[in-house]
Amino acid sequence: MDVLRTTKAPVSGAFLGKKFHVSRQVIVQDIALIRASCPGIISTHRGYIMTQPAYVSRVFKVCHGPGQIEDELNRIVDAGARAVDVFVRHAIYGKIEAELNVFSRRDVRLFVDKVKNHGVKPLTDITGGEHYHTVEADSESILDEVEEALQSAGILIGVE
Questions:
Q1: Collapsing DSSP states into helix, strand and coil, what is residue 100?
Q2: Domain count, the chain
Q3: Are residues 88 and 146 in the same domain?
Q4: By the 8 A CB rule, do 108 and 73 touch?
Q5: 19 is in which domain, residue-wise?
Q6: Which residues belong to the annotated binding site?
Q7: Residues in the annotated binding site for Ni(2+)
Q8: Which of 16, 36, 115, 158 could form a disulfide with 27 if both were Cys (CB 3.0 to 4.6 A apart)?
Q9: 9 with 60, same domain?
Q10: Do 69 and 17 lie in a common domain?
Q11: Residues 60 and 28 grouped into a single domain
Q12: What integer pLDDT is reported at residue 61 of this predicted model?
């Protein structure tokens, strides 16, 4: 997956076979299995390409006050992950969701400044601080780091 993810040009089965010391047929079979769970890989006459990034994601349920938003988001991006959204589950209205797309400390700062400067209350005020984040990363190990960071901050309730 890393080879396809980091290469813009098509990667041939023969090249992958040589790189991983297996036959081209083994690569063809493996790619077929991978494509079942990652539809972003397509086969061309020149090789395989990835049409979309193959990110892994996890939903974290957290609870904290408004003063901890910056620390929470920094913990996510410092681990190398992205905070895709924030959502709450309301007893009457159901799921209420907002996109975040926070990729860096700069994005965190801009988001926090926007909340402060516009004088609005965060979505989490509706549920007493309890909310969820969909977090994306390049690997499960990065998501594990996010989980540990949120746990060590004492704000992690669970993982979905």
A1: strand
A2: 2
A3: yes
A4: yes
A5: 2-50
A6: 64, 72, 131, 133
A7: 64, 72, 131, 133
A8: 16
A9: no
A10: no
A11: no
A12: 98
